[in-house]
Design brief:
The chain is of the alpha+beta class. The protein has helices at residues 45-49, 107-115, 148-167, 210-223, 234-238, 246-258; strands at 5-6, 11-12, 41-42, 52-54, 57-60, 63-64, 68-79, 84-89, 94-99, 121-131, 134-145, 179-180, 183-184, 193-194, 201-202, 232-233, 262-264, 270-273. It is built from six helices and 18 strands. The strands form six sheets. Strands 7-8-9-11-10 form a five-stranded mixed β-barrel. A three-stranded antiparallel sheet has the order 4-5-6, with no helix packed on it. A hairpin with a 4-residue loop joins strand 1 (5-6) and strand 2 (11-12).
């Protein structure tokens, strides 16, 4: 999934460039095509807000921040005298992004900024700035995001970098297979099995009727819209199916999530069908 990661500082390497990577200074450079700079730290807004300042430098998870990338939905776009101020939300928090015309190195980037509309999602590259005790991101590169998978992949990148910086490199392990009476358990069976001494229970995911799965997806679509990125709650989806056992609905819901038909909108309580 992620290749050629520089584990030394939690930054991602550019696989198209074999030259040694250099950290970006506050002047930054991103080309002009909206592409990711060669060395960049993916962060959520919540992580960025909680950064620590020491000797005029900023740190997250003990690693100094140079170039940063964040994503977010544009809540407000305001043209100031010398720059454009953009307030964004990535479902973990809200943050200000500043774009100065002199920092945008191409007409392509300036056109993206000019066409920017509230409600759309963008990825921003830049460096952290503080003015009157208020943090913001001074961006020198940006591009629109049209595929929601990229929005959530950014959050996965941020989680992975956080884990590497706080726990070290994680070694993959072989998936474990639950067993019952020395035989592999089929995880698509509909019941719970107990070992011979009845002291150990092995949980097995129930096989759910396809018709119910389809109906649950229809309800999810009815409860959400392409402009409502907060999604709906699990209980909202379950409400029309009161005649079903709660555990059965939970298994159906888990199956939809495992099949990537429903995705979580970061806050842990709201969900969206994966079709927008």
């Amino acid at each position: 999934m992620l290749e050629d990661m520089d584990f030394g500082g939690g930054f991602f390497a550019d696989t198209s460039n074999s030259k040694p990577q250099e950290k970006h200074t506050t002047t930054g450079s991103g080309g002009g095509s909206g592409q990711k700079p060669s060395t960049c730290t993916p962060l959520t807004i919540k992580q960025l807000i909680s950064c620590r300042k020491q000797n005029e430098q900023y740190f997250v998870d003990g690693k100094e921040l140079f170039a940063i990338e964040i994503v977010g939905q544009v809540l407000k776009k305001e043209n100031k005298q010398n720059f454009t101020l953009i307030k964004i939300d990535d479902c973990t928090g809200q943050f200000d992004v500043k774009l100065f015309p002199t920092n945008l190195s191409s007409d392509y980037l300036k056109q993206i900024l000019n066409d920017m509309k509230e409600g759309n999602i963008y990825k921003f590259f830049g460096h952290i700035n503080e003015w009157k005790d208020r943090l913001s991101l001074v961006s020198y590169n940006l591009r629109p995001i049209t595929d929601m998978n990229e929005f959530y992949f950014h959050h996965l990148e941020s989680i992975q970098v956080h884990l590497i910086n706080t726990r070290g490199i994680i070694t993959p392990t072989q998936p474990q297979t639950s067993t019952y009476n020395n035989k592999s358990v089929d995880r698509n069976q509909q019941q719970q099995h107990y070992s011979n001494d009845d002291s150990v229970m092995v949980n097995v995911v129930q096989q759910v009727d396809e018709g119910l799965l389809e109906e649950m997806m229809k309800v999810a679509h009815q409860l959400t819209s392409s402009t409502n990125r907060r999604g709906c709650t699990k209980d909202d989806i379950f409400e029309p199916f009161g005649n079903y056992d709660r555990d059965y609905l939970e298994n159906a819901f888990s199956q939809l999530v495992n099949e990537a038909k429903l995705f979580n909108t970061i806050d842990g309580d709201h969900w969206m069908p994966n079709s927008y």
